[in-house]
Specification:
Oligomer: single chain
Largest sheet: none
Order of helices and strands: HH
Radius of gyration: 34 Å
Helix content: over 70%
Distance between the termini: 99 Å
Shape: rod-shaped
Number of helices: 2
């Protein structure tokens, strides 16, 4: 019950007569452009998602490191020791 080459050719001929060659060319170009834009949008979304995950990880690391030293103050003086002073 599948379509053979003869049936596909007849269907193509009917579509060509109904719409015309120029209209089919325009439809094909529009469809190709839409697919290209969709692929580009998907790639951009993946990049944004990866960047956001990286930023979230960096923020979590900063938060973890700052929370361990929170409230600690170190007081004192810094002495410069050189060969002459030792």
């Amino acid at each position: 019950m599948g379509f053979g080459p003869l049936e596909l050719f007849i269907i193509l001929a009917i579509v060509l007569v109904l719409f015309g060659a120029k209209k089919l060319r325009n439809i094909g170009g529009d469809l190709g452009g839409a697919i290209k834009n969709f692929k580009t949008a998907v790639k951009e979304e993946e990049n944004v998602t990866e960047d956001k995950a990286s930023t979230d990880n960096q923020a979590q690391l900063k938060e973890d490191s700052s929370s361990t030293n929170q409230g600690a103050t170190i007081e004192g003086t810094v002495e410069n020791k050189t060969k002459d002073n030792v």
